[in-house]
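Page 42, continued from yesterday. The earlier attempt failed because a stray header line got pasted into the input along with the sequence. Redoing it now with the clean sequence only.
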Amino acid sequence: MRATAYLLALGLLLPFWGLALLAWLGPSAWVGASLDALSAYAAVMLGFLGAIHWGVVLATTPAERALLVGDARHRLAWGALLVLAAWIVAMLPWAVLSLSLLFLLLVVSWQIDRHWLDNLPVGWSYQRLRQWFTLLAAVALLAAIASWLRPLIPGGGA
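This time it went through. Structure tokens are written below.
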């Protein structure tokens, strides 16, 4: 199961990196569309990460939930709030602002996961997978944000 989770997580990172690279290496006319697509994808992934909290609450017994950090209602509310915040941010008309705020949401959600999901009843470390996923997705978002510098680089706006 662990290998499957890691392989799927790597597959889920492909759109992050593919769209960030397209913003840098593709035709300049494609930059806006690739950043908008990346904003939408990052929002979807944040929704997925928020849903993990719902899964933890719904898949555990009250006795198991008592061992976890955080009240079940707070977990459900956080999962819903993360989805709504990501959706609103993804719809902003300025891609650089949208991606910057999605980057912040990704990092904040990782910090909350580090606190609330530290002692999940799984045989392997969800935290390690989440840490690597967040790091690689965050770097891709930063690379995409930096693509707005393309016109300032000699030959970069071509």
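Notes: The mean pLDDT is 89.
Reminder to self: strip header lines before submitting.
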